[in-house]
Amino acid sequence: MKKNVFFIGFFAAVVGAATALAVVKVEHGNSADTALRFDLPAVSSRAAVAGAVDFTEAAEKSVHAVVHVKTSYEQVQQYFSPLDFIYGFREYQQPQPVQGAGSGVILTTDGYIVTNNHVIDRAEKITVTLNDRRTFSAKLVGTDPGTDIAVLKIEAQELPFISMGNSDELRLGEWVLAVGNPLNLTSTVTAGIVSAKARNINILSENFKIESFIQTDAAVNPGNSGGALVNTRGELVGINTAIASNTGTYMGYSFAVPSAIVDKVVKDIVEFGTVQRAVLGVALQEINSEVAQHFSLKEVKGVLVQAVFEGSAAEAAKLRSGDVILKLNEVEVNTVAQLQEQLGKFRPADQISLTVNRGNKISNINVILRNRAGLKP
Fold first, then answer.
1. Which of 62, 167, 212, 225 is catalytic?
2. Which one of 68, 103, 118, 263 is the catalytic residue?
3. What domains are there in the chain, each with its CATH number?
4. Residues 65, 103: contact at Cβ < 8 Å?
5. pLDDT of 135-173, one tens digit each?
Protein backbone atom coordinates (compact mmCIF):
# COMPACT_ATOMS: atom_id res chain seq x y z
CA MET A 1 0.00 0.00 0.00
CA LYS A 2 1.50 3.35 -1.03
CA LYS A 3 1.58 6.17 1.46
CA ASN A 4 2.16 9.73 0.37
CA VAL A 5 2.71 13.03 2.14
CA PHE A 6 0.58 16.00 1.13
CA PHE A 7 0.49 19.68 1.91
CA ILE A 8 -2.93 20.52 3.33
CA GLY A 9 -3.88 23.77 1.62
CA PHE A 10 -7.30 23.69 -0.08
CA PHE A 11 -7.66 25.25 -3.53
CA ALA A 12 -10.64 25.57 -5.87
CA ALA A 13 -10.22 26.65 -9.48
CA VAL A 14 -13.08 28.87 -10.62
CA VAL A 15 -13.60 26.99 -13.88
CA GLY A 16 -17.00 25.30 -14.21
CA ALA A 17 -18.11 23.63 -10.99
CA ALA A 18 -14.99 21.55 -10.39
CA THR A 19 -12.89 21.79 -7.25
CA ALA A 20 -9.57 20.19 -6.52
CA LEU A 21 -7.21 19.60 -3.66
CA ALA A 22 -3.97 21.52 -4.06
CA VAL A 23 -1.80 18.73 -2.78
CA VAL A 24 1.78 17.92 -3.63
CA LYS A 25 2.88 14.28 -3.63
CA VAL A 26 6.40 14.14 -2.30
CA GLU A 27 7.10 10.82 -0.66
CA HIS A 28 6.43 7.19 -1.48
CA GLY A 29 6.74 4.06 0.62
CA ASN A 30 5.73 0.48 0.05
CA SER A 31 4.27 -1.84 2.64
CA ALA A 32 2.14 -4.95 2.58
CA ASP A 33 -1.62 -4.47 2.53
CA THR A 34 -3.18 -5.43 5.82
CA ALA A 35 -6.78 -5.88 6.87
CA LEU A 36 -8.26 -3.33 9.25
CA ARG A 37 -9.12 -4.65 12.68
CA PHE A 38 -11.13 -2.78 15.28
CA ASP A 39 -10.02 -3.33 18.85
CA LEU A 40 -13.03 -2.17 20.83
CA PRO A 41 -11.45 -2.36 24.29
CA ALA A 42 -8.54 -0.17 23.13
CA VAL A 43 -10.91 2.37 21.59
CA SER A 44 -12.94 2.48 24.77
CA SER A 45 -9.78 2.87 26.84
CA ARG A 46 -8.60 5.79 24.69
CA ALA A 47 -12.01 7.44 24.99
CA ALA A 48 -11.84 7.06 28.76
CA VAL A 49 -8.42 8.70 28.87
CA ALA A 50 -9.62 11.53 26.62
CA GLY A 51 -12.60 12.03 28.90
CA ALA A 52 -10.22 12.61 31.81
CA VAL A 53 -8.58 15.54 29.98
CA ASP A 54 -10.43 18.86 29.81
CA PHE A 55 -10.01 20.28 26.29
CA THR A 56 -12.60 23.05 26.68
CA GLU A 57 -10.30 25.79 27.99
CA ALA A 58 -7.69 25.20 25.29
CA ALA A 59 -10.36 25.10 22.58
CA GLU A 60 -12.00 28.30 23.82
CA LYS A 61 -8.64 30.12 23.96
CA SER A 62 -7.53 29.09 20.52
CA VAL A 63 -10.63 28.98 18.32
CA HIS A 64 -11.08 32.77 18.38
CA ALA A 65 -7.45 33.36 17.39
CA VAL A 66 -7.44 31.02 14.37
CA VAL A 67 -8.49 32.71 11.14
CA HIS A 68 -9.69 31.64 7.70
CA VAL A 69 -7.16 32.70 5.04
CA LYS A 70 -8.46 33.04 1.47
CA THR A 71 -6.32 33.78 -1.56
CA SER A 72 -6.82 34.44 -5.23
CA TYR A 73 -4.68 34.82 -8.32
CA GLU A 74 -4.97 34.42 -12.09
CA GLN A 75 -3.46 31.45 -13.84
CA VAL A 76 -2.96 31.23 -17.58
CA GLN A 77 -4.47 28.04 -18.99
CA GLN A 78 -3.71 26.69 -22.43
CA TYR A 79 -6.38 25.10 -24.60
CA PHE A 80 -7.13 24.27 -28.22
CA SER A 81 -10.18 25.12 -30.31
CA PRO A 82 -12.06 22.44 -32.34
CA LEU A 83 -11.42 24.67 -35.38
CA ASP A 84 -7.73 23.90 -35.00
CA PHE A 85 -8.36 20.57 -36.71
CA ILE A 86 -9.37 22.53 -39.83
CA TYR A 87 -7.04 25.49 -39.77
CA GLY A 88 -4.07 23.89 -38.00
CA PHE A 89 -3.20 23.84 -34.31
CA ARG A 90 -3.12 27.22 -32.62
CA GLU A 91 -2.35 27.74 -28.93
CA TYR A 92 -4.77 29.85 -26.89
CA GLN A 93 -4.01 31.38 -23.50
CA GLN A 94 -6.66 32.79 -21.23
CA PRO A 95 -6.20 33.82 -17.59
CA GLN A 96 -8.47 31.97 -15.19
CA PRO A 97 -9.12 32.99 -11.57
CA VAL A 98 -7.89 30.51 -8.98
CA GLN A 99 -8.98 30.64 -5.35
CA GLY A 100 -7.36 29.01 -2.35
CA ALA A 101 -8.09 28.69 1.34
CA GLY A 102 -6.26 27.72 4.50
CA SER A 103 -5.86 28.82 8.09
CA GLY A 104 -3.75 31.23 10.10
CA VAL A 105 -3.00 32.03 13.73
CA ILE A 106 -3.14 35.51 15.29
CA LEU A 107 0.03 36.08 17.33
CA THR A 108 -0.40 39.70 18.44
CA THR A 109 -3.29 41.97 19.37
CA ASP A 110 -2.36 44.34 16.51
CA GLY A 111 -2.80 41.78 13.74
CA TYR A 112 0.35 39.77 13.00
CA ILE A 113 -0.70 36.35 11.69
CA VAL A 114 1.36 33.24 10.96
CA THR A 115 0.38 30.72 8.30
CA ASN A 116 2.05 28.30 5.87
CA ASN A 117 4.01 29.60 2.90
CA HIS A 118 2.20 27.17 0.59
CA VAL A 119 -1.17 28.64 1.63
CA ILE A 120 -0.30 32.08 0.21
CA ASP A 121 2.11 31.00 -2.53
CA ARG A 122 1.43 32.97 -5.79
CA ALA A 123 -1.43 34.86 -4.11
CA GLU A 124 -2.25 38.25 -5.60
CA LYS A 125 -4.97 38.97 -3.06
CA ILE A 126 -5.19 37.70 0.54
CA THR A 127 -8.19 38.12 2.82
CA VAL A 128 -8.55 37.01 6.42
CA THR A 129 -11.85 36.20 8.12
CA LEU A 130 -11.93 36.15 11.91
CA ASN A 131 -14.01 33.80 14.00
CA ASP A 132 -16.47 36.67 14.63
CA ARG A 133 -16.95 36.88 10.80
CA ARG A 134 -15.13 40.18 10.32
CA THR A 135 -13.06 40.19 7.12
CA PHE A 136 -9.82 42.07 6.48
CA SER A 137 -7.47 42.52 3.57
CA ALA A 138 -4.07 41.12 4.57
CA LYS A 139 -0.57 42.28 3.65
CA LEU A 140 2.18 39.71 3.16
CA VAL A 141 5.02 40.67 5.52
CA GLY A 142 7.41 37.91 4.47
CA THR A 143 7.91 34.21 3.80
CA ASP A 144 10.38 31.44 4.53
CA PRO A 145 9.98 28.52 2.10
CA GLY A 146 12.70 26.63 3.99
CA THR A 147 10.32 26.13 6.92
CA ASP A 148 7.04 26.67 5.00
CA ILE A 149 6.17 29.66 7.21
CA ALA A 150 4.69 33.02 6.16
CA VAL A 151 3.68 36.12 8.12
CA LEU A 152 0.64 38.28 7.34
CA LYS A 153 -0.55 41.60 8.81
CA ILE A 154 -4.06 42.99 9.09
CA GLU A 155 -4.97 46.47 10.30
CA ALA A 156 -6.89 45.79 13.49
CA GLN A 157 -6.48 46.23 17.24
CA GLU A 158 -7.36 44.31 20.40
CA LEU A 159 -7.51 40.99 18.58
CA PRO A 160 -7.58 37.65 20.39
CA PHE A 161 -4.26 35.82 20.06
CA ILE A 162 -2.56 32.57 21.01
CA SER A 163 0.48 32.64 23.29
CA MET A 164 3.59 30.89 22.00
CA GLY A 165 4.33 27.62 23.78
CA ASN A 166 7.54 25.61 23.95
CA SER A 167 7.50 22.69 21.53
CA ASP A 168 10.72 21.36 23.05
CA GLU A 169 8.74 20.45 26.15
CA LEU A 170 6.19 18.32 24.25
CA ARG A 171 6.28 14.66 25.22
CA LEU A 172 5.26 11.62 23.22
CA GLY A 173 1.68 10.70 24.08
CA GLU A 174 0.80 14.25 25.17
CA TRP A 175 -2.64 15.46 24.12
CA VAL A 176 -2.85 18.29 21.56
CA LEU A 177 -5.61 20.06 19.65
CA ALA A 178 -5.61 20.98 15.96
CA VAL A 179 -7.61 24.13 15.19
CA GLY A 180 -8.40 25.31 11.68
CA ASN A 181 -10.77 25.41 8.74
CA PRO A 182 -10.70 21.96 7.10
CA LEU A 183 -12.61 21.67 3.81
CA ASN A 184 -13.86 25.24 4.42
CA LEU A 185 -15.59 24.13 7.64
CA THR A 186 -14.67 27.09 9.83
CA SER A 187 -13.53 26.98 13.44
CA THR A 188 -13.02 23.23 13.70
CA VAL A 189 -11.24 21.62 16.67
CA THR A 190 -9.91 18.04 16.75
CA ALA A 191 -7.84 16.21 19.37
CA GLY A 192 -4.98 13.70 19.23
CA ILE A 193 -1.66 12.84 20.78
CA VAL A 194 1.93 13.59 19.87
CA SER A 195 2.97 10.49 17.91
CA ALA A 196 6.59 11.48 17.14
CA LYS A 197 8.92 14.47 17.15
CA ALA A 198 11.68 15.66 14.81
CA ARG A 199 10.10 13.87 11.86
CA ASN A 200 11.72 14.53 8.46
CA ILE A 201 9.22 13.76 5.66
CA ASN A 202 11.10 15.38 2.73
CA ILE A 203 8.24 17.69 1.79
CA LEU A 204 10.30 20.87 1.33
CA SER A 205 12.62 21.48 -1.61
CA GLU A 206 14.76 24.40 -0.40
CA ASN A 207 18.53 23.95 -0.12
CA PHE A 208 18.58 25.23 3.46
CA LYS A 209 15.31 23.68 4.57
CA ILE A 210 14.57 22.74 8.17
CA GLU A 211 12.32 19.71 8.53
CA SER A 212 11.68 18.57 12.07
CA PHE A 213 7.90 18.11 12.21
CA ILE A 214 5.72 17.20 15.16
CA GLN A 215 3.71 14.14 14.14
CA THR A 216 0.24 13.73 15.67
CA ASP A 217 -2.91 11.71 15.11
CA ALA A 218 -5.17 14.76 15.45
CA ALA A 219 -7.48 14.77 12.43
CA VAL A 220 -6.59 17.49 9.91
CA ASN A 221 -7.65 17.92 6.30
CA PRO A 222 -7.09 20.31 3.37
CA GLY A 223 -7.77 23.78 4.75
CA ASN A 224 -6.04 23.08 8.09
CA SER A 225 -2.74 24.32 6.65
CA GLY A 226 -1.45 27.24 8.70
CA GLY A 227 -3.77 26.44 11.60
CA ALA A 228 -2.84 25.97 15.22
CA LEU A 229 -1.58 22.94 17.08
CA VAL A 230 -2.05 23.75 20.76
CA ASN A 231 -1.41 21.94 24.02
CA THR A 232 -4.09 21.45 26.70
CA ARG A 233 -3.18 24.87 28.15
CA GLY A 234 -4.08 26.54 24.86
CA GLU A 235 -0.47 27.46 23.99
CA LEU A 236 0.73 27.31 20.38
CA VAL A 237 3.13 24.37 19.96
CA GLY A 238 2.99 24.01 16.17
CA ILE A 239 1.59 25.10 12.81
CA ASN A 240 -0.30 22.29 11.02
CA THR A 241 1.27 21.75 7.60
CA ALA A 242 0.93 18.28 6.04
CA ILE A 243 -0.74 14.88 6.22
CA ALA A 244 0.30 11.34 5.35
CA SER A 245 -2.39 9.99 3.06
CA ASN A 246 -3.20 7.81 0.06
CA THR A 247 -6.13 10.04 -0.89
CA GLY A 248 -5.23 13.65 -0.04
CA THR A 249 -7.52 13.58 3.01
CA TYR A 250 -6.83 12.51 6.59
CA MET A 251 -5.86 8.88 7.11
CA GLY A 252 -4.24 8.91 10.54
CA TYR A 253 -1.15 11.15 10.72
CA SER A 254 -0.55 14.86 10.47
CA PHE A 255 2.57 17.01 10.73
CA ALA A 256 3.17 20.45 12.25
CA VAL A 257 6.10 22.87 12.25
CA PRO A 258 7.28 23.14 15.90
CA SER A 259 6.68 26.44 17.68
CA ALA A 260 10.41 26.67 18.48
CA ILE A 261 11.03 27.11 14.75
CA VAL A 262 7.90 29.22 14.14
CA ASP A 263 8.79 31.71 16.89
CA LYS A 264 12.30 32.36 15.49
CA VAL A 265 11.14 32.62 11.87
CA VAL A 266 8.28 35.02 12.69
CA LYS A 267 10.53 37.29 14.78
CA ASP A 268 13.14 37.42 12.01
CA ILE A 269 10.57 38.23 9.32
CA VAL A 270 8.93 40.99 11.39
CA GLU A 271 12.27 42.53 12.42
CA PHE A 272 14.39 42.03 9.29
CA GLY A 273 11.94 41.15 6.51
CA THR A 274 13.72 37.84 5.95
CA VAL A 275 14.99 34.92 7.99
CA GLN A 276 18.45 35.22 9.55
CA ARG A 277 19.51 31.60 9.14
CA ALA A 278 22.60 30.38 10.97
CA VAL A 279 24.52 27.41 9.60
CA LEU A 280 27.20 25.21 11.10
CA GLY A 281 28.91 24.32 7.81
CA VAL A 282 29.10 20.53 7.98
CA ALA A 283 27.81 17.48 6.13
CA LEU A 284 25.99 15.17 8.54
CA GLN A 285 25.03 11.52 8.73
CA GLU A 286 22.76 9.71 11.15
CA ILE A 287 24.30 6.91 13.18
CA ASN A 288 23.18 3.28 13.13
CA SER A 289 24.85 0.10 14.36
CA GLU A 290 26.93 -0.22 11.20
CA VAL A 291 28.22 3.35 11.38
CA ALA A 292 28.93 3.00 15.11
CA GLN A 293 30.95 -0.17 14.47
CA HIS A 294 32.91 1.44 11.62
CA PHE A 295 33.93 4.39 13.82
CA SER A 296 34.39 2.21 16.94
CA LEU A 297 31.72 4.11 18.83
CA LYS A 298 30.63 2.68 22.16
CA GLU A 299 27.03 3.89 21.77
CA VAL A 300 24.63 4.49 18.87
CA LYS A 301 24.07 8.12 19.80
CA GLY A 302 24.44 11.53 18.20
CA VAL A 303 24.99 12.74 14.63
CA LEU A 304 28.17 12.05 12.67
CA VAL A 305 30.14 14.88 11.04
CA GLN A 306 31.03 13.55 7.58
CA ALA A 307 32.80 16.67 6.33
CA VAL A 308 33.64 20.19 7.49
CA PHE A 309 33.30 22.93 4.87
CA GLU A 310 36.08 25.41 4.27
CA GLY A 311 35.46 28.85 5.75
CA SER A 312 32.58 27.60 7.90
CA ALA A 313 31.76 28.14 11.56
CA ALA A 314 32.58 24.47 12.17
CA GLU A 315 36.06 24.86 10.67
CA ALA A 316 36.75 27.93 12.79
CA ALA A 317 35.72 25.95 15.89
CA LYS A 318 38.04 23.09 14.81
CA LEU A 319 35.35 20.46 14.37
CA ARG A 320 36.63 17.45 12.44
CA SER A 321 35.30 14.80 10.11
CA GLY A 322 34.46 11.79 12.28
CA ASP A 323 33.30 13.88 15.25
CA VAL A 324 29.94 12.88 16.70
CA ILE A 325 27.69 15.72 17.91
CA LEU A 326 25.78 14.52 20.98
CA LYS A 327 24.21 17.74 22.28
CA LEU A 328 23.60 21.34 21.27
CA ASN A 329 23.38 23.61 24.30
CA GLU A 330 22.69 20.55 26.47
CA VAL A 331 19.82 19.36 24.24
CA GLU A 332 20.42 15.81 22.98
CA VAL A 333 20.44 15.37 19.19
CA ASN A 334 20.25 11.89 17.69
CA THR A 335 18.98 12.73 14.19
CA VAL A 336 19.84 15.34 11.59
CA ALA A 337 16.31 16.75 11.96
CA GLN A 338 16.80 17.25 15.69
CA LEU A 339 20.08 19.07 15.12
CA GLN A 340 18.51 21.24 12.39
CA GLU A 341 15.62 22.13 14.69
CA GLN A 342 17.95 23.27 17.45
CA LEU A 343 20.19 25.24 15.04
CA GLY A 344 17.08 26.85 13.60
CA LYS A 345 16.60 28.81 16.83
CA PHE A 346 19.78 30.83 16.36
CA ARG A 347 21.04 33.66 14.18
CA PRO A 348 24.47 34.22 12.61
CA ALA A 349 26.99 35.47 15.22
CA ASP A 350 25.21 33.60 18.03
CA GLN A 351 27.45 31.32 20.08
CA ILE A 352 26.42 27.74 20.82
CA SER A 353 28.01 24.89 22.74
CA LEU A 354 28.35 21.45 21.15
CA THR A 355 28.98 18.30 23.16
CA VAL A 356 31.19 16.19 20.89
CA ASN A 357 32.42 12.61 20.98
CA ARG A 358 35.87 12.51 19.38
CA GLY A 359 37.54 9.12 19.55
CA ASN A 360 35.24 8.13 22.45
CA LYS A 361 36.38 11.17 24.43
CA ILE A 362 33.65 13.69 25.30
CA SER A 363 34.36 17.42 25.15
CA ASN A 364 32.49 20.70 24.73
CA ILE A 365 33.25 22.94 21.76
CA ASN A 366 32.01 26.52 21.47
CA VAL A 367 30.94 27.58 17.98
CA ILE A 368 30.15 31.08 16.71
CA LEU A 369 27.58 30.51 13.98
CA ARG A 370 27.82 32.06 10.53
CA ASN A 371 25.41 32.73 7.67
CA ARG A 372 24.99 30.72 4.44
CA ALA A 373 27.99 32.43 2.86
CA GLY A 374 30.19 31.37 5.78
CA LEU A 375 30.38 34.93 7.07
CA LYS A 376 29.56 36.50 10.40
CA PRO A 377 27.21 39.45 9.84
1. 225
2. 118
3. 1-29+46-77+94-275 (2.40.10.120), 282-368 (2.30.42.10)
4. no
5. 999 999 999 999 999 999 999 999 999 999 999 999 999
